[in-house]
User: What shape does this take?
Amino acid sequence: MGLTQLLPVPQTGVTLDEAFAFSAEETVRAVFIAAVDGAASLLGRAGGLANSWDRQLFSLNRALADVILVGAGTARTEGYGPAEDDPQWRHLRQGRSATASLAVVSHGLGFDFDSPLFTEAPEDARTIIVTSAQAPKRAREQAAEVAEVIVAGELTVDLPAVIRALRERGHSRIVCEGGPRLFTDLLRADQVDEVCLTRSPTLVAGYETGILSGAEFATPLDLDLERAYATDDSYLYLLYRRV
Ligand SMILES: NC(=O)c1ccc[n+]([C@@H]2O[C@H](COP(=O)([O-])OP(=O)(O)OC[C@H]3O[C@@H](n4cnc5c(N)ncnc54)[C@H](OP(=O)(O)O)[C@@H]3O)[C@@H](O)[C@H]2O)c1
Assistant: This one.
C-alpha cells in the first residue's frame, strides 16, 4: 500500500520515492517531524513522534542526499553515528558513496572524537565538522585528525559560505535534519529551498522544542505547499517550497 496523494492532484498508491524525489539539482531541503501542537520532540527525541512511514521517509531523504547537514545539538541528543546503508534505497545511490557524509555544525566543538560518528564513518563518506575560525584551536586540531573540517566565518559560522563549500565538494543535494537552532539560522541566512515536514497526529503540550528556536523573524517567511500525502494512521507528509 502506498501513500494517498492530496496535492498536487488526488491520487492513491504513490510511493515515497516518487513523492519526495528532488525536483532541482541544487537544493537545500530541511526535514522535520512535528506534532499537531508544534512539539518537535517527545521525551527529548524526535523519533518518539514518528511512525514507520516517517522512518522510511527519513531514510529516503538520507539516501537522496549528497550530504546530511545537522546541528551539533541534534547530533549529541539523538546520538548520531554515520548514516546507514538502507537496502530499500540502495538503487538511489548508484555512482555515489553507499551513504552520505554527515556535516555537523558546531562552534564549541564539544565532541567525543572517539565516538562512532568519527571512527565508523566510511573513508568515502567521512564526517565533516563545520565550524568558525574562533572555534577552540585544540578541538579543531583533534577534529582534523578524525574528520574533514570546513572553517567558514570568523566569529560565527557563515552559513552561506558553508553551503558554497559543500557545493564545491560536489554536494548539490543538501538535506538538513535540523535541529531548531540550525534550521532557524539557515532560514535567516536565506539558505533553505524546501521544507519536508511530517505532521504526527499527536498532541504533546509542555514541550520546549519546536522546529524553530530564538527570536521571531522580522517578517514571517512564506512557504508554498507543493505536495501533500497522508497515510491511514492520520499522519501527513508535506513538502513546502520557500516562496
Ligand atoms: N522534530 C524533528 O524533526 C527534530 C529534528 C532535529 C532535532 N530535533 C530536536 O531538537 C533538539 C535539539 O535542538 P537544538 O536547538 O540543540 O538543535 P541544533 O540546532 O541541532 O543544535 C544546536 C547546536 O548546534 C550547533 N549549531 C547550530 N546552529 C549553529 C550555527 N548557526 N553556528 C554554530 N553552531 C551551530 C551549536 O553547537 P555547539 O554547542 O557545539 O557550538 C548549537 O549549540 C533535540 O531535542 C532534538 O531531538 C527535532
Notes: The mean pLDDT is 97.
